[in-house]
Amino acid sequence: MNRDASVGGSPLRPGDVVEVRPAAEILATLDKDGTLKGMPFMPEMIAHIGKRYTVSRRVDKTCNMVDESGSRRMRDTVYLGDLRCDGSAHGGCQAGCMIYWREAWLRRVGTNSTDPGTSDANSAELERVARAATRSMRELAGNRSEIWRCQATDALKASEPLKRTDIRQYWRELTNGNFGRLRFIGLLIRAFLMDCAFQLGLLKTLPLRGSTECTPEGPPLNLQRGELVEVRSPKEIAVTLDQSGTNRGLSFDREMLPFCGRTFRVKDRVQRIIDEKTGRMLSIPKDCIILDGVACSGERSVCGRWFCPRAIYPFWRESWLKRVDNPERS
Description:
The chain has 330 residues and is an alpha+beta fold. It has helices at residues 23-27, 123-132, 168-175, 181-199, 234-238; strands at 17-20, 35-36, 39-40, 52-58, 61-62, 72-73, 77-80, 101-102, 106-108, 135-140, 143-148, 160-161, 228-231, 246-247, 250-251, 263-269, 272-274, 281-283, 289-291, 321-323. The chain has a five-stranded antiparallel β-sheet with strand order 8-7-4-1-9, with no helix packed on it. It has a four-stranded antiparallel β-sheet with strand order 19-16-13-20, with no helix packed on it. A three-stranded antiparallel β-sheet has the order 5-6-12, with no helix packed on it. The chain starts with 16 loop residues before the first strand and ends in a 7-residue tail after the last strand.
């Protein structure tokens, strides 16, 4: 039916308390493909029905990793807290993407309300609809392949092109509550200077590059979830990179620089992720680590990706980390 419900009143802003609508109301917004304006309602979201969360950020734009053609305009969408997809309905994908919530799937509640909401008899039907288009078999390069579909793979369908010269996107970031005014101005100035430097050839997309054509594998640390590690210095990391700024195909991104020298806990070893471009499940046989509390800020990116809110987990090679003695680790 794809009827767009409303949260009532003005658009949601960071700090607003909302409740995820009952399954029947969410079903009424979805089309035959289980989407609202191109955005899939994923099976992993069903567990949040009836629960209440605080809006952490409006998603008025997002970076485009599907065809990398620039940022995209997103409408009527927010993030709730740090709710991320656990991949349970997507083959165990470990990307941990933030979940997009259309405002029509939410309703604003009073901050003093204590009613937690109740489960819904229509949850089974909603799960059936949500799972129906989660994966399919397609012909790719002459081979029959299993293709996964999620909010990340369908980002183009759920958004619109956004020109870098469209200044309205920056006005929205200033007024939608995502940033305080002084912080926004500071970030905008830095982003503008970085982008100008990039366009003039004074700044490379990758901050660090090595001097060799290939990089040898260092001794394995076999890091496990919960261990403490320290991110090595830029100088130490540069030694592990080849001339293209990668270590065995994995790049050290500019957004990772602020974490150098700091200590974090290992969140997980990543072995499976869905490729946003193709929908294929990628197996990662080599060391690939994500760290707890470490995500892309979107504040150091260039090429028009300023203020991207996706907070993607960067992937770390073990050679960029060093174990910190932690005898009390549980």
